[in-house]
Input
Amino acid sequence: MSIQEDNMQQKPIIIAGAGIGGLSLALTLQQLKMPCVVIESVSELKPLGVGINLQPNAVRELYEMGIGESQLDKVGVKTQEWALVGRNGREIYSEPRGKSAGYNWPQYSVHRGELQMLLHDALKSRGGHVSLELGYKVKQYVNHESGVTVIAESKTGEVREFEGALLVGADGLHSKVRAQMYPNQPEPHWSGAIMWRGVTPGKTMRTDASFIGLGHHDHRLVVYPISQPDDEGMSVINWIAEVTVDTSNGLPSGDWNRQVKLEDFIHHFEDWNFDWLDVPAMLKGAGDVYEYPMIDRDPVPTWVDDKVVLMGDAAHVMYPVGSNGASQAIIDARELGAAFITHGVSVQAINAFDAKLCKPISELVLRNRGSGPFGLLREVDERCGGDFTDINDVISQAEMDEFMHNYKAAAGFAIEALNNAPSIIPKENHNA
Output
């Protein structure tokens, strides 16, 4: 080991952002007994957000981080089925998920904020050389021979400097770390899709834990439960209503990620009423509803700048069509940990991480931009305009199975490959 690497190991790894990716990395470093400092802009973490999905590859890593099945059951449900249904209410495609599909681990539909708090509480309870600095936003970094200096600022204007061996930018879509690394990066890429998101108490559909995509590729609804049924059989149903509009004038300016009124969008779905789901009633039963553009960022050639590396949405924010954004952030954390085991806390480690993941995950970003697994809806629309009686007259089961297999392989959760893959972090390092 070089003198420079030895000096770097005396300093903590600095993590910008205490989201799911940043906290997963902190838990991984805690397992590896590597000191770290997590810098987060909010002064208090709260269980904000709505539903997300965790694929079996990410659930495996959570288990190996010491986040158990009973803990995940408290913040979500094991997904049993993934299904696409046409606007006419007829099934296009369905498949089992998680252990029902043959995986060694389940898939989970969870409340994002509650998962974040679960990771945070685990981190705080385990101690070790981990510091969580809330209320400071990373604004700038300076690479130098012995490590990296990170400059952070509070909302009141207080400036602090942190000295670290490495900086990991896990600060999301609007990452300041990425912006410094790529000062001329273009604005986020907008698909033309506008999403409205909310949660509504309701009965589960199909199975007790089905993820359902309903409609057309450019006008659809996604719905799935994110809580166990209560004594009256009611669950928290997460829903995403989506419409694609003209993009000729570019990404609209204004206040995105904002709370909106039901009347702003319900007219798009007012006649979506089926014997198994009354969509207008579900939308009306929601509390707060928020509007989002479906955006990502163009891939970059590398996630590394000397002693600084990106991960999670800061590296590869992607359209939420494949249910793998949060999953990939967790995988990133574990792959970084594995690189530190092999190469030490060093530039070589983050370069090895970058060489392994940057290219394939950048390809996944572009695949999701092309509708991801919802590309099946696009294929059906192109073949029959969404009007069919028997889907097998439009597209064969073999075609659909191949489409889904190829997506899972690209996203890192093909069943046989995942079940047979060795642990990312060797088992001797799993004791938290």
Remarks:
- The chain has 13 helices and 20 strands.
- Residues 13 and 36 are 5 Å apart (CA to CA).
- The two ends are 27 Å apart (CA to CA).
- The first helix runs from residue 3 to 9.
